[in-house]
Write a structure and sequence with these properties.
By secondary structure, this protein is an all-alpha fold. It has 27 helices and 4 strands. The chain has 3 domains: about 150 residues, no CATH class; about 325 residues, no CATH class; about 150 residues, no CATH class. Helix content is about 55%, strand content about 0%. A hairpin with a 7-residue loop joins strand 1 and strand 2. The N terminus is likely disordered. Keywords: Membrane, Transmembrane, Transmembrane helix.
Length: about 700
C-alpha cells in the first residue's frame, strides 16, 4: 500500500495549507476518501460514521493521521509475513526432525513429519489471524481517537480565539472606563486585571511623566512637570468629605471622587528619566504600584473610620466583596479552618469603635449634634484637610522628587545647603514650609488647616509603644513631643488630628486596600491595639497639660478599663501607686496582670522600695506624680528598655522572679548613675536607657 499523501506529476509532495487557514470542502472530502479507502483495505466491518466529517478540521491533521495509520498497517503486514515465514520454516524442520526421530522407515517418518508440520502450520495460522484481528481493532480505535482529538483541538482553538477576543474587548472597556473616570489618565503598563481580579482594575496606579536631571531637587519644577498641569478638583474633594457619612455613598463612589480630586496621587509612579546606579524609584523598597496602594489603604481606612456606626466596622474588619460592598459578619461554619477570618472576627468584636469615632470628634473632623453623645456629622473643612494630607503624605518616598536644600534655607533640620533631603517626612515639611504652592491640594487649604497639616509632619520622636506599655518615664516619652507642640502652637484638636493621620497611615501599611486593614486586623494583638486607642483620648491634652500629668492620666485610665475584668477598685494612691499601674500596663494580658498583682504582695521590702522610687521618677524638673509624692527627688530617670517583654516572658509562672529581676536592674543602674538634682543635668541627660534585651530571653533559673 502507498505511504503518505498524494504526489503531483513532478514527484514532489503536494503542499498542504498551514494550520491557520480554513479548510475547503474539497480538501475535507479528499481526506475523508483517504480514510475510507484505508478502512476498506483494512477490511473493517461497517464504515466510518458520516458525522466524523460533518465539521471541517485542519487538512494537515488528516494527512498526518493517514500517514500514521498507513505506516502502522505496513508494519502489521510485515509482522504477519515474518510469522508465516517462521511457520513454514518450523514446519519443514518438523517434517525432517519428526521423520528422523519417530519413524523406523521413510514412510513412517514422512507420516509423522506431516502430522507435526500440520500442527505447527495450524497454530501459526491461528496466531496470524488473531494478530491481524487485534491489529485491525487497534488501528480502528486509533482512527477514532485521532479524529476525536483533531475535532477537540479545533474546538479548543476556536474557544481560545473567542476568549482572546473577549479579553481584548474587556481590556479596551477597562482602559476606556479608567480614562473617562480619571480625566484621561492611563494605567501603568505593568498592571494586569487578569492577575489582580475583576474588582481591582480601578485600583491600578496612574502613569506619570519621568523627571529629567535638570529639574531634580527643585520641587517647584519637578512636581509641576510630573503633574502635567493638573490641579485639585475641590468640588470632588468637598463631595467626598460631605458624603462620607451618607449611607448610600459606597467605597467605589468615594474612590472615584478622591482619584478625581487629588492630582498628587499620580506622583507615586514618577520615575527618573535616566537610571542612576544605587538609586531606587521608591525609598521604602516597594514598587510604585504598591506604594500607591498603601496610600489608597490609608484613604480607605479614613473612609471606614468616618463611617463607624454605619458600615465602617465591617469594612475595616472584613473588607469588601467583588461589588465593593462591605462583607458581612461570617457565620460559624465560615470560621472553621480559617485562622485569618477568626482574627478578623475578634478584631470586629473587641475593637472600641466608639473611642475611634470619638478620636475623629476630638480632631474636629466630626461634630456632635446636640452635644456630646449625639449623632455626628462631618466637619467639611477639617475632613478636606485630612483627605488632602492622606493623599500627599508619602509622595517624597519617590526618590526622583526629593528636594535639595537651597542656601537661603540652610541649615534645615540637620541638612546643609545642597543636600538632598532623603528623609521623606522632613522632605515633606521642607516643601510645605518653603514651596507650599508646589502641592495644589495643600495650597488650596485655608490657613488653619494648613497649620494643622504642617504640624503632623513635625518630627515628634514619639514612641507609642513606650506609652501603651508604660515602658518609659514622662521625659523620654513626651519631652520632644511637647516642644514640637509648643513651637507649633498646636491645640488639642491638632494633636488628635495628628493621631488620626498616624492611625490611618498604619492601617494602610499592607498594600491590599480592598480587604480592610490587614495591618491592624491581622498584624496587631487586639489588646495592644486597644491600648493604642485608649491612649488617644488622653494624648491630646499634651497641648495644655504637663508631660507627667498626661502620663498619669493615661495610667489611671488604663487601670479603670482593666478594673472590671480584674476586679480592682479605684486607681491606687501612695508611693506604690505609679509602680503598680505601670507594671499592670506592662503585663498587658489578663493572666499576666493577675500574676503580677499577686507577686507584688510577696515582694521583699527592699525590692518594693526600689520599684516604687525608680518607676515614679519623671526626669523633668518641678514635675511629680500626684499619686506618688517623691521623697528623694532627682535624676536621671531610668528607662529599662524591654522591661514589658521581661515581665510578659516570666508571667504567670514566674511573676515574682520578674519583679525581683526588674528591681535589681534598677538598683544596679542607680549605682552607675547616682541621684543628681535635675536642674544640674542637660536635657538629654535627664533620662538614661538601660537595655535588657538579652536578660529578657533567659529562663528564670539562670544563675
Amino acid at each position: 500500500m502507498g505511504g503518505g499523501g498524494s504526489s503531483s506529476g513532478n514527484g514532489r509532495r503536494r503542499t498542504t495549507r498551514t494550520s491557520g487557514e480554513p479548510t475547503s470542502g474539497r480538501a475535507v472530502a479528499a481526506a475523508a476518501k483517504k480514510l475510507r479507502d484505508l478502512q476498506r483495505r483494512l477490511k473493517f466491518r461497517g464504515c466510518l460514521a458520516p458525522s466524523v466529517f460533518e465539521a471541517p478540521f485542519e487538512e494537515a491533521a488528516v494527512e498526518s493521521l493517514y500517514r500514521d495509520l498507513a505506516a502502522r498497517f505496513r508494519l502489521a503486514r510485515q509482522t504477519l509475513l515474518a510469522v508465516w515465514l517462521a511457520a513454514v520454516t518450523a514446519a519443514s524442520a518438523g517434517l525432517f526432525v519428526g521423520g528422523a526421530a519417530l519413524g523406523s522407515s521413510a514412510q513412517h517418518g514422512l507420516l509423522w513429519g506431516a502430522v507435526g508440520a500440520s500442527g505447527v502450520l495450524l497454530f501459526a495460522l491461528w496466531t496470524c489471524v488473531e494478530a491481524d484481528r487485534l491489529a485491525r481493532r487497534l488501528l480502528w480505535s486509533g482512527t477514532q481517537a485521532c479524529v476525536g482529538e483533531a475535532r477537540e483541538h479545533e474546538a479548543l482553538a476556536a474557544q481560545v480565539a473567542q476568549l482572546r477576543a473577549q479579553l481584548g474587548a474587556a481590556k479596551y472597556e477597562e482602559a476606556t472606563m479608567y480614562k473617562l473616570l480619571f480625566r484621561g489618565q492611563t494605567r501603568l503598563a505593568s498592571f494586569s486585571s487578569g492577575t489582580s481580579g475583576p474588582r481591582e482594575f480601578l485600583l491600578a496606579a496612574p502613569e506619570a511623566r519621568s523627571i529629567t536631571n535638570a529639574v531634580e531637587g527643585e520641587p517647584n519644577l519637578a512636581i509641576a512637570l510630573a503633574l502635567s498641569g493638573r490641579t485639585t478638583d475641590w468640588d470632588a474633594v468637598k463631595r467626598a468629605a460631605t458624603r462620607l457619612r451618607h449611607r448610600d455613598y459606597g467605597l467605589r463612589d468615594y474612590y472615584v471622587d478622591v482619584r478625581q480630586a487629588f492630582p498628587e496621587l499620580q506622583l507615586y509612579t514618577v520615575t527618573r528619566e535616566e537610571y542612576k546606579a544605587g538609586h531606587r524609584d521608591i525609598s521604602s523598597g516597594l514598587t510604585p504600584d504598591e506604594e500607591y496602594r498603601r496610600t489608597l489603604g490609608a484613604l480607605f481606612a479614613l473612609y471606614w473610620l468616618a463611617r463607624v456606626g454605619i458600615d465602617g466596622e465591617c469594612g475595616l474588619s472584613f473588607g469588601v466583596d467583588d461589588d465593593w460592598a462591605p462583607r458581612k459578619i461570617p457565620e460559624q461554619e465560615d470560621l472553621d479552618g480559617s485562622a485569618a477570618l477568626k482574627k478578623r472576627l475578634t478584631f470586629y468584636c473587641n475593637t472600641p469603635w466608639k473611642k475611634l469615632l470619638q478620636l475623629l470628634v476630638d480632631a474636629g473632623m466630626l461634630t456632635e449634634r446636640g452635644g456630646r453623645g449625639g449623632a455626628v456629622e462631618v466637619a467639611v473643612p477639617r475632613m478636606c484637610a485630612m483627605l488632602a494630607l492622606t493623599a500627599i503624605h508619602d509622595v517624597f518616598k519617590v526618590e526622583a522628587l526629593l528636594p535639595r536644600v537651597r542656601p537661603e534655607h540652610a541649615p534645615f533640620k540637620g541638612f546643609a545647603a545642597g543636600d538632598v533631603i532623603n528623609d521623606h517626612d522632613v522632605a515633606m515639611y521642607y516643601v510645605l514650609d518653603h514651596f507650599p504652592e508646589a502641592l495644589p491640594s495643600f495650597a488650596g487649604l485655608d490657613a488653619t488647616q494648613r497649620h494643622s497639616v504642617l504640624f503632623t509632619q513635625s518630627k515628634m520622636s514619639f514612641n507609642h509603644g513606650w506609652l501603651v506599655q508604660a515602658e518609659a518615664p514622662p521625659h523620654a516619652l513626651f519631652a520632644r513631643f511637647k516642644r514640637v507642640i509648643m513651637a507649633g502652637e498646636a491645640n488639642p484638636p491638632d494633636v488628635s488630628f495628628y493621631f488620626v493621620h498616624w492611625l490611618t497611615d498604619l492601617a494602610g501599611a499592607v498594600p491590599n486596600p480592598l480587604d480592610g486593614s490587614e495591618r491592624l486586623v491581622l498584624g496587631f494583638p487586639y489588646q495592644v491595639l486597644g491600648s493604642f486607642i485608649t491612649s488617644f483620648s488622653v494624648l491630646s491634652a499634651l497641648a495644655t497639660q504637663t508631660e507627667t500629668e498626661v502620663f498619669e492620666t493615661y495610667l489611671e485610665s488604663y487601670w479603670r478599663d482593666a478594673a472590671p475584668r480584674l476586679r480592682l477598685g479605684a486607681p491606687p494612691s501612695g508611693e506604690h501607686a505609679i509602680a503598680m499601674m505601670r507594671l499592670l500596663c506592662q503585663a498587658q494580658s489578663t493572666e499576666a496582670q493577675e500574676s503580677v498583682l499577686a507577686a507584688w504582695e510577696k515582694l521583699s521590702a527592699d525590692d518594693e522600695k526600689v520599684l516604687c522610687d525608680e518607676m515614679s521618677r519623671t526626669g523633668i524638673a518641678d514635675q511629680h506624680f500626684r499619686a506618688s509624692a517623691q521623697k528623694r527627688p532627682g535624676g536621671p530617670a531610668i528607662l529599662v528598655y524591654y522591661s514589658p517583654q521581661l515581665v510578659r516572658s516570666l508571667t504567670p509562672d514566674s511573676a515574682s522572679q520578674a519583679l525581683a529581676i526588674l528591681a535589681e536592674v534598677y538598683r544596679r543602674s542607680r549605682k552607675l548613675w547616682p541621684l543628681t538634682p535635675l536642674e544640674r543635668l542637660d536635657d538629654d541627660a535627664r533620662t538614661v536607657t538601660v537595655r535588657i534585651d538579652q536578660i529578657k530571653e533567659l529562663p528564670p533559673d539562670t544563675p
